[in-house]
Amino acid sequence: MDFKVVIPAHYASTRLPGKVLLKVHGKPIIEYVYRNACASGAQQVLVATDDPRIVEAVQAFGAEACLTSAEHTSGSDRIAEVIQRNAWPEETIIVNLQADEPMMPAENVAQVAANLDSHPRVDIATLCTGLAGEHEAGDRNIVKVVHDRDNIATGFSRNVETFAKSAAQTVYRHLGIYAYRAGFLCRFTQWPRSRLEKKESLEQMRAFEHGSLIHVEMCRSAPGIGVDTQEDYEALLQVM
């Protein structure tokens, strides 16, 4: 199976600007993300960013970087520009790997790509893991997901109470890694933002409300620490 990984990297993060360039053992966070992506067996790995500083850092460790429009509001939009620039075929499988996940195992990257490839009816594949206690269940920064017996998502929310009536369903922690085909992603980015997308600040709700099928599976390897805040960065330094 051939697939590509695109790592969208935005410099002006609200909570921790420039976080993907923060150093761990002398290397920027984004380099760890890139190395893990390469170890997944991807045919091609590149970074798509809106900032020349990220381009310079990525090229310095020998990786491919693409400077995209600063007008994009999401990583999906950034990836769609890369698809169109490179004229990738519609059926190309692309994994969207977040640039602030230096501990995301290569196995998970390969897993989400394989899940999309093996489910031709599915538009998006993604992963989940268990919620670590009530503190994660109550944290609105942690996205929750439920799915049916066929591993098709039936709901996403930041609020665990959203699923209170679905007692028979286990609520999982959603991981922000996605696989989709190039043609679908380019169509998706042309759709208007949906009501629930605006309410939850979750881009996948746009696909969900349009009737797209989203495959969700428990990740095979623990994802480790993602870096959203200074506290996350300090925790990362303790474990890497």
What are the salient characteristics of this protein?
240 residues; alpha/beta; nine-stranded mixed β-sheet; two-stranded antiparallel ribbon; 11 strands
Question: How would you describe what is shown here?
Answer:
The chain is 32% helix and 23% strand. The protein has nine helices and eleven strands. The strands form two sheets. Strands 1, 4, 5, 6, 7, 8, 9, 10 and 11 form a nine-stranded mixed sheet that branches. The longest helix is centred in the middle third of the chain and has 12 residues, at 75-86. The protein has 240 residues and is α/β, with parallel strands linked by helices. The protein is globular.
Summarize this entry quickly.
Helices cover 32% and strands 23% of the residues. The chain has helices at 29-38, 52-60, 75-86, 106-117, 133-137, 182-188, 195-200, 204-209, 230-239, and strands at residues 4-9, 23-24, 27-28, 44-49, 64-67, 93-97, 124-129, 144-147, 153-157, 172-181, 214-218.
Proportion of beta-strand residues: 15-25%
In whole angstroms, how far apart are the ends? 31 Å
Overall, the morphology is globular
Structural class of the helices, strands and pairings? alpha/beta
Average pLDDT rating: 95
Number of helices: 9
Low-confidence stretches: none
- The number of distinct β-strands equals 11
Q: What order do the helices and strands follow?
A: EEEHEHEHEHEHEEEHHHEH
Largest sheet: 9 strands, mixed
Oligomer: single chain
Determine Rg (CA atoms, Å): 17 Å
Helix content: 25-40%
